[in-house]
């Protein structure tokens, strides 16, 4: 097992600057995204901009991932992703979203999601770390995350990360126009077969002009919800979180954000932003090197 220091909230760096000329989402100033809208089909212009936003987010994630090494602080990783986004003219969507203070979410081991990058927390050999990046460009968002190993990790962590990657693929493969949103959770539940916990308190979401629109995606099977139907032009995220133990989450009181497993078991996550097409889906958050 790793000898890493216990995870706890650390001091934050000063708020990162975004150049004046970069267009900001409505919540950037006061933190409130306002009313959520029902999902609708993207216009050609929205879709073109979502491709760019998604490409920028993917590039920023890859750059942060390349900076992972034992002893590097989560704040340093956040700075790398922030730098790529502003260099490419995008606003880091999480910055001041409902008051969230940083440009990425970085979630280590038992942290499920919404870990806040800070100046004291370092990634250490044997950790698994999820980096979640969302970019806002041309009035729309693109959102993805991946879990990475820091150096050599144990076999349980390797298997968990592999299963989570496949759960994302299986979830995406369940999406087709005319199908129901609950097909995603149904397919993931069937694939996981009880081998891992499937987090149910956080889910995927419709995305576009709203970071999170009115569409909610469960990654476990939930017969009461998910009756909505997919239609061409819809854009959403699939972002399963699998755990080695309990699927139940609690949020750190100290910061109101960091979600951890109740039993301290480790969690992995993988996220893509996808488009529903006439025949199936297309993944938008794949960086095409230029
Ligand atoms: N990117 C996260 C998601 O996948 C949301 C982060 S919201 C924040 O939906 F406020 F925590 F940053
Ligand atoms: Co998301
Ligand atoms: Co995300």
TrEMBL record:
Residues 1-43 are annotated as: Disordered. Transmembrane segments: none annotated. Keywords: Aminopeptidase, Hydrolase, Metal-binding, Protease. Residues 49-278 form the Peptidase M24 domain. GO terms for molecular function: metal ion binding; metalloaminopeptidase activity. Signal peptide: none annotated. Gene3D superfamilies: Creatinase/methionine aminopeptidase superfamily. The keyword Metal-binding applies. One of its GO terms (biological process) is proteolysis. GO terms for cellular component: cytosol. The keyword Metal-binding applies. NCBIfam families: met_pdase_I. This is Unannotated protein. It comes from freshwater metagenome.
